[in-house]
Specification:
The chain is 91% helix and 0% strand. The chain contains five helices and no strands. The longest helix has 54 residues.
Length: 152
């Protein structure tokens, strides 16, 4: 709770600092944060949550098949059911393994999104403020002040 209040106060304070430097910059950063959050939540978040839940089920099925084989080993051997049980256990393992590969792929795509997304916040503010600095409307010190704001 304390961390949330501290974060909210920092957001308000640094938004005020950035607003005094450039209203366009604040609007851009707000839009950028909202769009990035929506993409991360709805494109990557939903898929990864579903895949992780499915992974828990696949792993539980695999563990269950191993316990079942261990508990029924004598019957399986008596009725010569080693091959069907082995195929069943391998299938369940492959289901878990394939789903885990899907999770890895989605996380890789999430990283491909996150790294450029976070890098743009280092470049775009300077590009937004550059015309004002070059026109002499804004001091370079104000741009440095903007770079120090942890709003991004």
């Amino acid at each position: 709770m304390l961390l949330a209040a501290e974060t909210a106060l920092q957001l308000i304070a640094f938004s005020g600092v950035l607003w005094s430097i450039s209203k366009t910059l604040v609007l851009f950063l707000m839009a950028y944060a909202i769009i990035g959050t929506l993409i991360a939540t709805f494109v990557f978040g939903r898929s990864l949550v579903a895949l992780n839940q499915f992974q828990l089920r696949r792993e539980a099925d695999f563990r269950f098949s191993l316990v079942r084989v261990r508990e029924n080993a004598e019957s399986i051997a008596f009725y010569r059911g080693e091959e069907p049980e082995s195929l069943n256990t391998k299938r369940r393992f492959n289901d878990a393994f394939e789903n885990y590969n899907r999770i890895i792929n989605w996380q890789w795509f999430l990283n491909l999104f996150q790294y450029p997304y976070s890098s743009i916040t280092l470049i775009m503010p300077g590009m937004i403020l550059a015309p004002q600095v070059l026109a002499g409307d804004l001091e370079v010190g104000r741009v440095v002040q903007e770079q120090q704001a942890p709003l991004r």
